[in-house]
Fold:
Amino acid sequence: MNAHTLPLPLNAIIAALAYFLAASEGWCLGSRIGNQDAEAVARGNAFAATADNPSAIYYNPAGIRQLPGWQFRMGSYITTVESEYRGPAGNTSTKDKYAMVPQLYATHTPKDSRFSFGLGIYSPFGLGTEWPRGTGFDTLSTQTKLTYIRINPVLAVELLPGLSIGGGPTLNHSSVILKSALPAPGDEFSFDGNNYDIGYNAGILWQPHPQWSFGFSTHSNTSFDYDGSVKFTPAPGESPAPGESPASAELEFPQWYTWGVSYRPTPQWNLEFNLDYTDWSTLDTATITGPGGNIPIAFDWIPGFMYRFGATYDFGNGWSASAGYFYTENSVPDRTFRPAIPDTDLHTGSVGLAWRRGPWTLAGAAQFTTGPWRKVEGSTPNALSGQSADGEYRYLIPAINLSLGYKF
Structure:
């Protein structure tokens, strides 16, 4: 789908929501943010076949059929990310920053109705990396920042007892900042742009037996024609003076699919496995178009899987505990590897607690992700500087997620 120009009132609404969510800045090293609720995060995000709180709007919108009356949920994913590099120019790491990515969900199921309604506001993608100058690859990237905010109304309907479907449109706003050094010492190139697009999500939830539940969900691809500007900033004292010109860039975000199965051997235990497929092959070449011509940025990513395992134990006194693990495949080939997104295989473990009392739910999860050292060889060098991304990279990502829910 192509980007769209929206009428002023809707622009104002989106701008207000973007301001409210500005705490997040969409800042999460990686690109796709799958951590959208504390109880789900504690289970390794294996939640598509359970989907029993308002965050089902993201994980599987068919799940909101399980939620009677009005239910609200808000939360935040809080993390700091360190990416390390070692190579011919020496060792370095990204600058430490903390990120907060909020989530808001609301659902309503009228009494004796087969229909349920929901609205979610969340950030399904985000990116933030900042490398110091002098890394040996600074003409490839010094700073990248991606902000992505999604508004997602959904409708779910019970087709048969135990079988529901759900889905809805997504209204998406994204902005991006790309910065890199130029071959002359101190010079810098940057692009800054933003735009909107629309998409959709959908899901199915089938519960044929009290012990078994099966879920499927998908989020469509989105495509942005970022409108903005390119800027050249020379080193202090150099000429010519800084210059800024109108520019645009195209970037496509992938569709993904999630299949889940939940097994409850006893009323206290819930064990779940999810298989997640992201079609990163849609991200091929991004082109920055400006008055000086086109600047192609090759990605040529490949599709990747995530394997998610989670378990929850309900103590029966309002408390429950969860643990989970998921493995994420690397999707970036060596040839087009860029330090802006230093992708590697990722291992993520998590634990969490949830407490319910009356209409209130409070949940918290702790998560730790590690990406072992990845050796990059044969990456395409910068045509002007000859610098390449060759070297070794790894991730360390501690995070917490907190959620608060209320129903009536």
Observations:
- The longest helix spans residues 8-20.
